[in-house]
Amino acid sequence: MAETESNETEQTPGEAQAAAEAQDAPESGAGPRQPVEIVPPKERRRRARAARAAQAKTGRPRTPEERQAERVAERERKARARRVERTRARAKARAAAPSGEATPPREHGLGRQKTRQGVVVSDKADKTITVRIDVARRHRRYEKIVRTSSTLHAHDESNDAHIGDTVIVRESRPLSRHKRWRLIQVVERAE
Q: For residues 169 and 185, what is the distance between their CA atoms, to the nearest angstrom?
């Protein structure tokens, strides 16, 4: 008896597992074994979580149509919240915008020419001025004021504008290699 106990305890882990499987195996006369689906542990946990969540809400598994309807309702709810927030942000931006020094809005539509206000940085060329357009806008995500500028060449038929003048220019057909704008008026003369 002592010999059998010592033999049982000396089994390797692989032998012990094989013995346990042999005990769990059905008798040879019980019929053919059913194929068992091998599911990885992560997938097993995911399926269990999904089943618990579904039963916690309704007490029964949800159909794909019910899940899709819930997704659509959630999207609509989020879209309404975004619309409300964007409307608030626009109203806040309009209230906070300084009215005196802002660049005119970019009102461009079909058949309407763009108009810009800027400062003349060069008038050396004949009948041409170089205008710097300064833009200050609030960054969409970080809310910081970002200042940028661009330069453009405008046609000045009478050589009216000089360095430092604030002018309004309007978009036009191409007048030369770089000129696509015309001087409309000198708003403020440089001193």
A: 7
23 C-beta neighbours (distance < 10 Å), count: 6
Q: Are residues 123 and 88 in the same domain?
A: no
CATH number of the domain where residue 174 is located? 2.40.50.140
- Report yes or no on whether pTM surpasses 0.85: no
Pairing of strands 166-171, 145-155: unpaired
Torsion-angle region of 166 (φ positive above 0: left; ψ -120 to 50: alpha; else: beta): beta
Residue 35 lies in a domain: no
What average pLDDT values come out for the chain (191 residues) when binned by 10 residues? 47 50 52 80 91 73 85 95 94 76 61 92 96 94 95 96 96 95 95 81
Determine the Cα–Cα distance for residues 134 and 113; give it in Å rounded to an integer. Answer: 19
